[in-house]
Amino acid sequence: MLTVERMGEIYNLLQQNGVVRVDELAGRFQVSEMTIRRDLEKMEREGRLIRCHGGAVQKMEITRDQGFDNRASLNLDAKMRLARYCFDHYIQENAVIYLDAGSTVLELAKLLSNVPGLTVVTNDVIIAGALVNSNMDVFILGGSIQRSLGCIHGHTAESQLENYRVDVAFVSSLCADDVFDVFAATESKVYFRRKLLTCARQTFMMLDASKFHRQSLFKINNLADYSAVITDKELPEEQAAQAVQAGIEWVTV
The domain 3-58 is classified under which CATH number: 1.10.10.10, 3.30.390.10, 3.40.980.10, 2.60.120.10? Predict the structure, then answer.
C-alpha cells in the first residue's frame, strides 16, 4: 500500500471514530509504529488531524448555525428514524411535552397529531405552525425570533419557561464533541437549555450521526445530563465504554 493510500484510510477512520491509536493502526496496516507516527506527523502538518499521546484525534472546526431551510433536508432519513423511535417509546397519552427548536424535533412533531390529550410547549414557530391544526393544546414561548431559524430564546422565553413543568422534553443540538460535551452557536441557547433541564422530568437528546466529533463556540452541558441520547451513530468499543463510565444511556436506532 502506498503511503498516500494508507494516510487516506487513516483519515477515513478518524472521520468515523474521532480518534485513532498508533498501535492499532500499525497492526491494521502491518507496518511499524514509527511508520504510523511519521504518517500522523505529516497529516498534522497538513492540518488534517491533531496528534496526542498514543495516537491522534480529529481536528475540529467551529460549527455555526445554518438557516432552517438548509438544515431541514440534511440527513432526513436519520432524523425520521430518531423521531419514530421517540414517538414509539416516549410519547404517552395526556402527557405534557416540550419540543425544542430544530429540524430533528420537527420530525417528531409531525407524528403527534392523533395522540389523545397531548399538551405541547415549544419555543419554535415552525413546530408550532406544524401543530396549529391539531387537536392538542399548544403553548409557544415568547420573545425575539432568531432570523432564518424560527427559534425563540432569551430572557423573556426563559422567564416563561420557569412557569411550566413538563413530563418529557425532546431536544437536539448543533453538535457534540469526542468527550460528549454539547454545544450551541449562541450564548442565549446555553442558558435556555440549562433552564429547560430543571423544568422537565425527563429530557431526551436527539442527535443524528453527522453532529458528532464537532464543536461550536458555546458549551451547553454534557450528554450525561440527559435521560438518554437517541442517535443513529454507532460508537466504537473504546468510546462506548467511556459513555457507560460517564453514565450516558446511548440508544442507537
Answer: 1.10.10.10
